[in-house]
Amino acid sequence: MSTGAIPPYPESADAPRFSPWRYAGRLAPLAVLWAVLVGLLAWLLATRANWNEESDRADVREWVDNTRVFRKTLAELVKEYVDLLHSPDLPNRADRVHDKRAEIRQHLEAMVEPTRMYTAQLPLFPNVYALEVEFAGVSDADGAPAEPLTWTSPKPRPGGSAKAQLRTLEVEPPLDRPGARATVRCVYQLHSFNRMQQQQDEFRHWQTIAAGVIVPTTLLAVFLVVRAVRREQARELEKWRVAAEAEHRERELLAAQVERELIERNLLEVRVRQQELERASEELGRKLLEQELNAAQHKTRAAEAEREALEMKSQLYASIGIMAGSYAHNIKNLLVRPNDLIARCMEAADGPQHEMLDEVKSTLGTVTERLQQILRTVRRDPANAEVTQVDAFSLFRDTQRTWAEMGRDKWKLTVAADVPPGSALVTGDLSHLQQAVENLVFNARDATFEMRNYLRDEAKRETDPAARRQKLMAAAGWKGEVHLTARRDGDHAVLEVRDNGIGMTDEVRRNCLKTHFSTKRDNALYEGYSAGMGLGLSFVAMVLEHHGGDLEIESAPLRGTTFRVRFPLVAE
């Protein structure tokens, strides 16, 4: 907390730091004007130094562009040569191209011959060391890039310090053809060494004059600017001292009042702290009560969730029991009459007929026993399963043998199995696992029925009679398939039930394991049975939960479904 003490007298404090950047805006126009003058002078010197060289390059360029040896310039010959290369239909094209190349070579030699004859007599004549014509985007008759035309002087190029006197000039004559380009390159030496030395001496002379003008004037300008800045600094310092003395006098007058205010402020702060402590204590008590209330609510919610889960499981088992009891009652009523008729027929029959009737009676007994086994399975809680070691591979083989004939004759589909030899032991209840696998098979069967009905409905909606007939024939010939696949994957047994049925959408795949959730239509099942009650897959999920199994579902609309179950193997 601030004590409100009066700062010391300004004489004992440091003076404000002076910043020359405050005057940068005032000095900016003068600096810009000075930079423009210096840059203009430098540009004039550079132009003066390079004027002779630019003049020489202009002379050589005019010599390359306008020299006419055989009534044509080099640019015109090059353009004619490129036109010949791009005219494949001309008669005697190859000979004409060869003659044109020879003509260009003679033109190059004729251009440089006078310069070679008078190189030592006329200093203004250039010493040409190379003259060549290169092509880009131009091809000969074979499709290869056009070769350059080159003339090289037999006189060797200068070395050492004289090598710096060599100049290269490149000229691109117009060809009037998109993508085609020709470059005339000339390597030459024009002025003698004495002339170049004279140019360098003249350049250094003008440099000395410029330095003699710029340096003194720059120093004078800097001196004037520094003196003006120092005067302004002294003036501002004096103003600061006067203002500091006035402020010190005002602070001395207010010192007593500040002390009284500090005492009153301290008393108020003590009271405020007491009130804050009281509020903090109340807030802490309120938070403790809220935490206790939240804990009680969490316990209530957990208990409610557990109760709802138990109720859902009870409802599931009740529904399964009701369904199983209804099925068992109906099947038993249907089996009473066939058993009575078979018993009468066996009394009157003898020989082979008696044996066949006895076999039929035995089969009906097996059906009744199987019905009682299924009824005991669905009525027993998976949590109280009879745990034994079950061969998962053998379970798949038995399931395929049990339903293959029924699938072929009644369901009009193929039930196939791909199970490796040997065994794969898992821990579980045989009846529960058997019922779970059969539920997956029945679900795959119903998916194939829905797929067949979908194909028929699509064919009936076709407006073209011929196309409708083809689609109806394709729908009638469509064959449902259910594949049972088993394999080992490390320390797990993997069981897959795959079909080529109607498939599932993402929403159906997320909800298919929920109790009483079903999408089967009345015509999805065979023999006129109504749609499912949504208990089959939920029963499978509960069985797998109590057996430590994992279920994966892969499906897409009209692309079939794969149910993949993973069980941990029994340690050998």
From TrEMBL:
<dbReference type="InterPro" id="IPR004358">
    <property type="entry name" value="Sig_transdc_His_kin-like_C"/>
</dbReference>
<keyword id="KW-1133">Transmembrane helix</keyword>
<feature type="coiled-coil region">
    <location>
        <begin position="260"/>
        <end position="315"/>
    </location>
</feature>
<keyword id="KW-0472">Membrane</keyword>
<dbReference type="InterPro" id="IPR003594">
    <property type="entry name" value="HATPase_dom"/>
</dbReference>
<protein>
    <recommendedName>
        <fullName>histidine kinase</fullName>
        <ecNumber>2.7.13.3</ecNumber>
    </recommendedName>
</protein>
<dbReference type="Pfam" id="PF02518">
    <property type="entry name" value="HATPase_c"/>
</dbReference>
<keyword id="KW-0812">Transmembrane</keyword>
<keyword id="KW-0808">Transferase</keyword>
<feature type="transmembrane region" description="Helical">
    <location>
        <begin position="206"/>
        <end position="229"/>
    </location>
</feature>
<feature type="domain" description="Histidine kinase">
    <location>
        <begin position="326"/>
        <end position="571"/>
    </location>
</feature>
<dbReference type="InterPro" id="IPR005467">
    <property type="entry name" value="His_kinase_dom"/>
</dbReference>
<dbReference type="GO" id="GO:0016301">
    <property type="term" value="F:kinase activity"/>
</dbReference>
<dbReference type="InterPro" id="IPR036890">
    <property type="entry name" value="HATPase_C_sf"/>
</dbReference>
<feature type="transmembrane region" description="Helical">
    <location>
        <begin position="27"/>
        <end position="46"/>
    </location>
</feature>
<keyword id="KW-0175">Coiled coil</keyword>
<keyword id="KW-0418">Kinase</keyword>
